[in-house]
Amino acid sequence: MNEIKTEKKNLYLRFSDWMDGALWHRALVLLALSAAVITVFSVYTTPISPYYGNDSAFFLLMGKGVTQGKIPYLDLYDQKGPMIFYVNALGYLLTGDKPALEGFTFVGWALTPDATPADVVTSIDLTGDTTVYAVWTEDGKITPRTINKNSLRTGAVSGIRFASIIDLSVKAGLSDDFKGVEPDEYGFIVSRKVLLNGETLTFGTAPNEKGVGVTPNGATYVSGVAFDKAKGINRVYDNDGSKFSEVTAGKNEAFTAILTGIPEENYGDTLVARPYLKIGGLYFYGRAREMSMKSVAEDLKANYDSLTDAEKELVDKILAA
Q1: What's residue 197's pLDDT?
Q2: Which residues contact 8 (CB under 8 A, 6 or more apart)?
């Protein structure tokens, strides 16, 4: 029996064991041979190519539809048998778009209905009827919260500041979802490396510890850590609310990323930063924040009289560029 069921927060896939004994070992050999043939000779289904076509494209469409509650042969139709649709549905659940539920973040799949993020699995051994369940975490419980405040760094090395909040219960390993598990690291991922004078991303007064990466679509980004348990990095920007009203002493603290070395000709270009947290081997991402040097300067200009002399000088420089 193959079944996919969605019921608000309950999302699971059930599939039956249909091989045992020697047949299982033969199947593994045939699977390896099939994978080799598809990779080398298939025009549309080889993983070497990013494009799908003909039947393979429709199988993927049917599988995606199944994961979204569509009924084969009723909502979507093809003359092929249903097994290929459910195979594609399984693949799509594991590698395609993540399930979405308003107010919650999808974490992964687990083997029990009451699983927490700590119970998420990355592989499954098919030994019988198996059900995997979607695991969710409520937004804001684990993920760093992005602060909506425009800020610039003044001085010899000026830049634009992004900020986020981390709950101290999460940092101490006392969160409901990860009891006894402290974060491995957290920080920011920032787009538009070309505007950041190479690989520089500053946390406090220290350069980033992560470096440069490339997204699946080829875009280059810069990332850096504000906290790294293994390396002993712990950069706190505000822990008493003196800089951000969103910070409450003893409850949470703020960390920032400062983008420096932005050329004057790029002051109007939008930069995107997103806080992330790695805990229990899993990554959680906060809301992305978009700003430019010019947009921040224009916002600060509205309260010009309250700015320091250094801030006024930098704002005037940005707006005059």
Answers
A1: 46
A2: 101
CB 13 within 8 A of CB 90: yes
Alpha carbons 72 and 82: distance in angstroms, whole number? 7
- Report the distance separating Cα 193 and Cα 173, nearest Å: 33
Residue 279: burial class (beta carbons within 10 Å; 0-12, 13-18, 19+): buried
> Pairing relation of β-strands 104-110 and 145-146?
unpaired
Yes or no: say if 153 and 159 are a contact pair by the CB < 8 Å rule. yes
pLDDT at 200: 47
Ordered alpha helix ranges (H), the chain: 22-41, 54-67, 83-95, 168-171, 293-301, 309-320
Q: pLDDT per residue over 245-285, tens digit each?
A: 999 999 999 998 888 777 788 888 888 888 999 988 788 88
Q: Identify the sign of the CA torsion 195, 201, 204, 206.
A: negative
Give 264's contacts (C-beta < 8 A, 6+ positions apart). Answer: 321
Residue 7 β-bridge partners: 10
Written as six digits, the tokens of 120 are 């998420």
Q: Could you give the C-alpha distances from 62 to 113, 120, 198, 293, in angstroms and in order?
A: 26, 26, 44, 45
Q: Which of residues 83 and 38 earns the better pLDDT score? A: 83
Do the Cβ atoms of 85 and 61 come closer than 8 Å? no
- Residues written for the chain: 321
The amino acid occupying position 155 is G
Residue 51: both structure tokens together: 């494009």
Query: Among residues 168, 174, 183, 182, which one has the least CA distance to residue 254?
Result: 168
Query: What's the pLDDT band for 75 if we cut at 50, 70, 90?
Result: confident
Position 163, amino acid: A
Return the bridge partners of 132, or none: 13
